[in-house]
Specification:
This protein is an alpha/beta fold and about 475 residues long. Helix content is about 55%, strand content about 20%. The chain is built from 13 helices and 16 strands.
Length: about 475
Amino acid sequence: MPPQTASYPQPPFSTATVLLIGSTGMGKSTLGNFLLDPDEEHMCENPAFAPGKGSRPMTQEVKVASKKVQIEGHGRVELTIIDTPGLNESPSKDLSHMIDIIKKLNECREIRACIFVVKFNAKIDAQYKATIKYYSKLLPDLFERNVIIVMTDFKTDKDSKQQRKRQCLNVEEVKCDTIDELCKCSNNQIKYIPQLFMIDCFAMYDEKETSKKERAAILDYIFELRPIKVKSQKVAKTDYIKNKDKVEHQKLQEEIKRKNDALKEDYKHSEAALNDTQKKKKEIDDLENDIDNFREALLDKNTDENVVAAHQSINVSSFKIESPYEITSYDTWTNGSYNFTEIVQTSQIIQGNVVGEFMLGIYASVTAYTHKKLKYQDEIKDLNDKIKEKQNRLNKCTEEWKKFKKSHTDKEEEIKLLEKYINERKAAARRCRLDFMTVEDAVKRLKELEEEEKQQEQEEEDDEQEEEDEDGEELDD
């Protein structure tokens, strides 16, 4: 049995979306109609899904229908059914169906159940197996717990029961065999025994009530399942596309190898030149760094900020301070018992007298100041010379670098284009290895497949015409 989702507390709900899966002739459209409305007028005269006629399937595209249905304990709620076409028609049709399904799923945002529709005692053909395999990859979460099997065309009247008895058909064995075979096709996604229902959508007489009760049981079960989110769903690749991508991946790998070999040759031929470019660029960076450092030191020293030019502590009655730099200002200090008199300042000398009673110790001092740019003028000149020398070297180096770059523009551009092309091929190769593709990529692939099929049809027509022409020539002879 599947997980007991019915035992979990369920939030209030008003809608449920159900996906019908099955191959041609299994009764998907008929079951969809019956679940939406079992009324005879709806089933026969105005069905939501037109059933197929004979062996020709009516579901040739994805169809969606919604209707309010009565659910015991929940009143009337909206049921949306997505009727899907079977796969293995043609590569382009299969992909077209998948694109439509993904668009519908993304619109619905969540799916409450996936119903495998199979006619009672019918053979599970290759189309059915391929369809289940595809959807199990597309919706693994849904397959892990929300799969239901409905066997259609199961008649419960007395004559049908007698006929099954004469044919030695064991209903329980058919059910078990069907469940086992369907689960095998699911990429090991179904690790439980799905709930199975049996129904006859066109039952007659008293059997109509039996079918309606089974319908009610199916709907009750569906609405007890927890919905699965399907937002931003991607398109799972069909086996045909995966096989094409496998071949394409091999071609891309071979092409990438050839281009990489060509790229290595380009690198080899220009390796010395590229190394010279890198060395030249490093030299430029070093020169620019040196110039920046010199300019920073120059900005620090080439200012009018006052710095000490000379200092003298005084313990005598007269003083004279000589500075190697031009004196811009000075400060005096005493301990409060002395006074400075007759101070005279020239460009590089400060002299004067100190009045007071001198004893042992320091009782006064004079500090002469000059501008930084005056004190460090030799260093400033040296820095300017270094900046000029480095700038000349930088200009020369930059010209050499520009000249080299100009002479090798074509080669470098070729390398860039080759690298870009290789990266694009690598990205394409990675996409070939993926099991899914975006809707946009799927639409592109669909156009390619349609063009291929159109070309193939044209070639077949040309071959047939050529054979007819040859047969006509033989008759003339």
